[in-house]
Amino acid sequence: MTKSVDLNADMGESFGPWNMGDDSALLDIVSSANVACGFHAGDPDVMAATMTRAMECNVGIGSHPGFADLQGFGRRKMQLSKDNLKNTVRYQLGASRGMAAALGGQVRHLKLHGALANMSSVDADMARACYEAALEVDPDIIIMVLAATEMEKVVRELGCNWAGEIFADRAYNDDATLVDRSKPGAVIHDPAVAGPRILQMVQEGAIITESGKRIATNIDTICLHGDTPTAVALAGAVRNSLTEGGIEIAQFSGRRG
Amino acid sequence: MTKSVDLNADMGESFGPWNMGDDSALLDIVSSANVACGFHAGDPDVMAATMTRAMECNVGIGSHPGFADLQGFGRRKMQLSKDNLKNTVRYQLGASRGMAAALGGQVRHLKLHGALANMSSVDADMARACYEAALEVDPDIIIMVLAATEMEKVVRELGCNWAGEIFADRAYNDDATLVDRSKPGAVIHDPAVAGPRILQMVQEGAIITESGKRIATNIDTICLHGDTPTAVALAGAVRNSLTEGGIEIAQFSGRRG
Amino acid sequence: MTKSVDLNADMGESFGPWNMGDDSALLDIVSSANVACGFHAGDPDVMAATMTRAMECNVGIGSHPGFADLQGFGRRKMQLSKDNLKNTVRYQLGASRGMAAALGGQVRHLKLHGALANMSSVDADMARACYEAALEVDPDIIIMVLAATEMEKVVRELGCNWAGEIFADRAYNDDATLVDRSKPGAVIHDPAVAGPRILQMVQEGAIITESGKRIATNIDTICLHGDTPTAVALAGAVRNSLTEGGIEIAQFSGRRG
Amino acid sequence: MTKSVDLNADMGESFGPWNMGDDSALLDIVSSANVACGFHAGDPDVMAATMTRAMECNVGIGSHPGFADLQGFGRRKMQLSKDNLKNTVRYQLGASRGMAAALGGQVRHLKLHGALANMSSVDADMARACYEAALEVDPDIIIMVLAATEMEKVVRELGCNWAGEIFADRAYNDDATLVDRSKPGAVIHDPAVAGPRILQMVQEGAIITESGKRIATNIDTICLHGDTPTAVALAGAVRNSLTEGGIEIAQFSGRRG
């Protein structure tokens, strides 16, 4: 049986007159698109255009909710009550689903954005609030989690559909957290390094940390970026390494438990 | 067969720390609630609270989209492209549906708000764009229209589910438009006048204009307000007049054609 | 020489269609108004109306900047970079000054709002960033600080004009911090208690804590609230106690060092 | 005496994570910068960075207020009351002045943006409301108007400081209005055409229309764009043509009457 993996990227993060990222280039590379829902980026027109293009490219559509903070692009930590968190996710996922339905499509998965994701990856209560809210809207939605974090613990507890994600361009510590961006080597810019590295992780079914340690985990999808020409080149290199290594690129179907 | 009519009111128009209207009082009077969707009023927490209370009171939930204009409360005219209009409605209806689903409820109808409604009542293309967008999200949704306006023509052409609405507290011209607010008698403040007047309209199945002319139309629902103590009193008086006149208060089921 | 003290209240915290507080009632009681600047509350129309009324009542105008968070009313903690903080304060103070100048008035003081104030009262770096930003816009502005907190240390270091503030309706711990709202007695609701208590503090020139300890400090102004009928009654009682006790109510003139 | 003219461009129209235009390139070309004020673009951080760079380049700073419509970039028509218009301008100009003062700079001029400008160029009442508001904040500010429009009539009536502006890249009708964008030749893209054409207009002190008609007017400043590489090239070409033609590039000093 051929091994397969999904490739995902954040998309639809333009807003009004402002463009962000090279969504067109990424749509030729990825199999799943995390589409912003208007709170940190992505107005309704951008959402519609992004989902339409994703459908044309047979790329799976995901809802990508974030904090209501356009200026900070959802990257600034905010302290919300549990109820507010839940309502924020319900609203954004609902908006994504409404837009997708109107276009004849479907929201397959949900991935948290920015500070909402970062905080949830180390705060199980926060992750649980967000994921419960999403499952209340759609019990079958596939929750995309950062592999081997609190997020993963929560989806296992919830017994819902989920997919585990690793980053194509980030180095890992031995506890599966990301190496701090301020440290040398934290971000991988060289496509020639990133491609084989990710292929190896997928083949071994493990995160390979900076020290060489293996953390066995479910690598269902790999996060790529498109905000710079280099990022797109790296994304393409990762895809090529995987396909040349015999790994099929295909949308995750979600796992339970 | 007992005649029945629906009573509706705009609700959930608080935002963040700011309260608007007396939703609790209205929920004892109306059978349908038009719940704001966050663009002109109604943040996700307000939406959740409003829908929860509506469900507890067996009041039907509607989506009440408006222009993205908090400061102007969606009452200022904006010129949007047709695509932008459609995406604006898709997004807000989707958000309403996501929230309702998460709470175990359902969005039964859609009613446009403020300037979006006023402009659409005299601009068939605009009404059509909004209604098509809503029907793309949910083909079964009941579109609430101002009776005998361009809105009604559009829903008849679309062949969708709809319900015709008149105002409890506004005088009508002979062409079924509302008497301009600046004119004396345009707004009816006296509960003792409003109640019998609406009962008569419902019994006759016609708008009764200022001049006494009858405009036969489908009166499926009557719009009430709750933004002042007087408004709530008038709303209650209209309900009493109707029930004492043998008219049952019940959610509309929608009509086609 | 007659002792005098200023009375201040947050005002102009309505937004668009939504009203907050009873500014008219407060304007008869206070001598200084902290006028919201549009980020947490107070759109330009509200600012103009509030400043106009303050001027008519000979009430001093202050700029009351907060986090850009309408839904959260500026009460949710946000993590901003130092530069972002500074620019946020410069912008809001500038807007206040522009509005006041257009109306023939003047912004005399600045008081931070909500979470921005709470965080700054325990974080000298944050307070310094905000106050430096304000002084860069207007070197003569009077900075209103929570007496005996990090804020006060910072204004003393900066050598700027400042005024020390205590709360009329909050109990104090022995370290001059406020008793947590969740504890009994933390908030004083009884006008008959609040009035004499504040008079005593002003006469002694000291915060009197729950345990009876005296913390000598500069009480230049007393913060009142107007968001409930009770709050307005308490505000009036505090004013009466002070005037009957021989304390003149007058705008602070600012102190240095 | 050497003839001189000012070159201006809209700047600081980035927002949060989103970039717009090539401000750095333009700052080497223009003598005046119209800096967005946060309503249609330009958050406080962007304003600070843009003003700082403008000052380093000895480029005059202007306030560039627009409608509160980020998604529409201030290009969608909005119907505001006269008071709301005035307060909107007062607020934004105040914010600009606060920011400039904090950075050791000064706001020299005001130019309306987008739909606010387009509407005001044909609606004297609207222009008057905006300009009166600006002059109430700063009686000495130089108002930049579209030459030979209602805007110019208004500033002449007001007797304020003003500067007349023409577009480097737009064709003119015989009544001094711009040729509609939908018509061929309406927008001039060829630097080799734009440069000599503008030089000729400045030398003749007249708008030269498509038909060759001369409309004598005060050409104090020429509007350039930087949103595309072509736009920057055209801007540079206009500057070169002018300087090679013996016209000095210098900030306008404003004219009265």
Automatic annotation (TrEMBL), chains A, B, C, D:
CDD domains: LamB_YcsF_like (cd10787). The keyword Nucleotide-binding applies. One of its GO terms (molecular function) is 5-oxoprolinase (ATP-hydrolyzing) activity. InterPro entries: Glyco_hydro/deAcase_b/a-brl, LamB/YcsF/PxpA-like. Transmembrane segments: none annotated. Gene3D superfamilies: Glycoside hydrolase/deacetylase (3.20.20.370). Keywords: ATP-binding, Hydrolase, Initiation factor, Nucleotide-binding, Protein biosynthesis. It catalyses: 5-oxo-L-proline + ATP + 2 H2O = L-glutamate + ADP + phosphate + H(+). It comes from the Bacteria. Its EC number is 3.5.2.9. Catalyzes the cleavage of 5-oxoproline to form L-glutamate coupled to the hydrolysis of ATP to ADP and inorganic phosphate. Belongs to the LamB/PxpA family. Forms a complex composed of PxpA, PxpB and PxpC. This is 5-oxoprolinase subunit A. It comes from Parasedimentitalea maritima.
